[in-house]
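[Q] Does anyone have a clean structure-token version of this?
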Amino acid sequence: MSENVEKLEGVISAAKLPEEGSRQALPSLKIAALLGPMVRTREWEAACRLAGFDASDRLVDALVSHGLAERVADGWRFVDRELVDALVDKVRGTPAWKKYHTMCANALFSVAGDSSAGVARRRADHLLAAGSSEEALEPLLMVEKEAYADGAYEQAHAVLDERQRLMDELELPSDDPRRAQNDWRSARLLQIQGQRRRALRLLDGSRQVLERTDWASERGNAALIHGQMLRDEGRLEEARESFEDATAQYALAADDSGLASSRMHRGHLEMEQGNLREALEFFEASLRSFEQIGDAFMMAVVLSQMSYAWLMQGDHAEAESCAARARDISQEAGHKTTEAAALNSLGEIARDRQDWDDARRFFEQAIILWLPAYDRNLHIARFNLALVEIGVGNYTAAKRLFLDVAERFAEMGFGPREPLVHAGLMTCSAAEEDWEAFEHHQARVLETVEKLGLGDDDLIWMVHKASVLVGERGTPAAKAAARELLMKLR
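[A] Here you go.
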């Protein structure tokens, strides 16, 4: 046993507390040990108050003077880990174990709510130690939410798995809405990582359960995820219906954050259909709401979307302003995935200006940030990098990227963008004078282009690049194929 444990009684005497304070000193230190080894004063005071005794600052002074603790910002900490363990062991297996852990959990909530994943994780751990597994389900949602925002998708999966195990141990029925909460969140993660079939299966089950509840906000969340998946598949009218359903559910729940999210996704849908003024109106309304709420993650998401809308209007200054602000907000909040999205937007702007070096730098930085999470958007950045290689005439590197992206787009839910990949491979084939491959990819673009929309700037740019190359060196059949595609795009 640590020498510090043995001298604790003498330290309490040295604090010269009143009689009642002396009796309360050891229990208060046991609570501190459960909160510690770093003890935040407000949390300790709140937990002791709930337990019916004081947290004495004179006691802390005595601990510090005897080398058992040291003052730190917002509180103090035990110097000796063995002392912490010994105090915890004095509580373990006694009726005070459940009581004190419950007091700690309630104190954390009274002081900080679930203001961060760190607080929520600690609160859940205290509730689990107290045997209150059902109460721990709610703070675990906050832990998953922040892991998702940070792009820590494996951590988010692990939290949902932990929550699933707890619900199994509690023998909650299959139609319990708390299981449905897990399912739509799992679907969101699986969709981002390209596992669309599993995501859809979970999402369908979640929506069926939630439809039988009065959990309007959760119904809105599930409808919103479904709308995103439909939009990515090019099923835009079905996506609109799903977003409208989400909006109605959020309105019913008076969920301001949900309403702001649905506005953003409505804006994205309008942008996909070329309705840029309407898109910006939705984005601006969404941004105002998230600014009022103080949600840095979603502010950055909306700003990146606004950047694309301004770029599509040809306003580089506004586009760059939005993307740069999204990047700055993300860096300050530590959100890697939204920082990557902002860098990708800046790369798009640089590429549109034909600033190839800047574009390459931004896309490569985005890929680095997206890669650890295996976020499906990293393949968009790699596709954009392939366009840069075409821009500088490095067709071999472009082809290598396009071939890899071609394998990923369908599985990642980017099927409607496949014609863009074929257009890239068509252009590379023309540069390599591989006319058989050129005609193959030209035919694939021609047969699927209507699903994409004939006004896509990247598609038109690549077709014109290919046409120039074909005009310089192509076979008669290749020239005829290029003319046919150009006529289709006009």
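[Q] Thanks! Anything notable?
[A] Residues 95-112 form the longest helix (18 residues).
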